[in-house]
Amino acid sequence: MTPTADIAIKDLKPGFGAEISGIDLASAPDAALDQVVDTFHRHGAIALRGQKMTPDDLMRFIGRFGDPEDHTQTRFTLPGYPKIFILSNRVVDGKPIGAHNDGVGWHTDYSYKPEPVMLTMLYAVEVPDEGSDTLLADGCAAWNALPADKQALLEGLRLHHSYKHFMATRQFGQQQTLSPELEAANPDVEHPLIRTHPADGRKALWPSTGTVTEVIGMPGPAGLALLDELVEFMTEERFVYRHKWRVGDLLMWDNRCTLHTGTLYDDTKYIRTMHRLWVKGDKPY
Question: Which residue intervals define the domain TauD/TfdA-like in the entry (predicted)?
């Protein structure tokens, strides 16, 4: 799709992602918004800076990509907007308004579901002066960089994902024993290690940390060691985009072909508040 006269597109890093400028998402015409959606599906991630988005604006925009996804944990959803989740260390009247240090550690969202979320969107409301960067790893570039014999070894492997295991082993004091209801609603699943993107058939390494308990077809320590090796490889600097946040930034990444992680910041000195939205996905293949 050819960019419209006012919209400019450049790589977030060579060969990955797109920074889109020259558009106000809250008031842009349908044709321009369609171009944003198309750019997302082809580039793995998009970033737009300087946006001023109300919760209603966020909901209208996210709806262009598909049906917004619910959140497993509902405690920190934005009042009146159950599809908008608050990430924050701000405390009001002695109570936290959002989840703090959520998403630290390389992973892909909802990998413990039969149909993981297709995309994740973060909108920056309050941003620390330093730290709290978001890192995205390009699974397609990592797959293409593997030698043919390694690709052949990995092609048929599948991963066992467990939400129960994920919540029991989380860092930063976020461990949680699931209620019987949450455990029943989130049974273990299996997904391919190599995922095919439905938009154009490109393949991506699709490992994760936190949720994986076993590599099907290579059980035991050898399989988990291979998984660690692949995550380390995929998150080498050459495959990673680092987003340094400004207020009004909107960053969206494609969970079908990336890993991501948050990074820490001085939470005794700075306040960070982000709005997170998800879009429903489909079964990986």
Answer: 9-278
Determine the Cα–Cα distance for residues 83 and 234; give it in Å rounded to an integer.
Answer: 30
The DSSP result for 178-198, as a single string, is PPHHHHHHS--EEEESEEE-T
The amino acid occupying position 258 is T
Q: Domain limits of the chain?
A: 8-279
* DSSP H or E stretch at residue 98: none
Cα atoms in the 13 Å half-sphere on the side-chain side of 35:
21
**Cβ–Cβ under 8 Å, residues 191 and 284:** yes
Q: Residue 238 has which token pair?
A: 């050459």
Task: Quote the CA–CA distance of 197 and 120 in Å, as a whole number.
Answer: 16
Strands 119-126 and 95-96: unpaired
Cα(40)–Cα(258) distance, integer angstroms: 13
Which overall architecture, per CATH, does domain 8-279 show?
4-Layer Sandwich (3.60)
Percent of the chain whose pLDDT exceeds 70: 97
Joined together, the tokens standing for residue 121 give 């969107």
Query: What is the value of pTM for the model shown?
Result: 0.93
pLDDT by residue (tens digit) across 116-135?
999 999 999 999 999 999 99
List, in sequence order, every residue forming a beta bridge with 161; answer none if it has no partner: 189, 212
CA atoms of 198 and 210, how far apart (whole Å): 25
Burial 192-206 (b: 16+ CB within 10 A, else e): bbbbbbeeeebbbbb
Q: Cα(184)–Cα(9) distance, rounded to whole angstroms?
A: 44
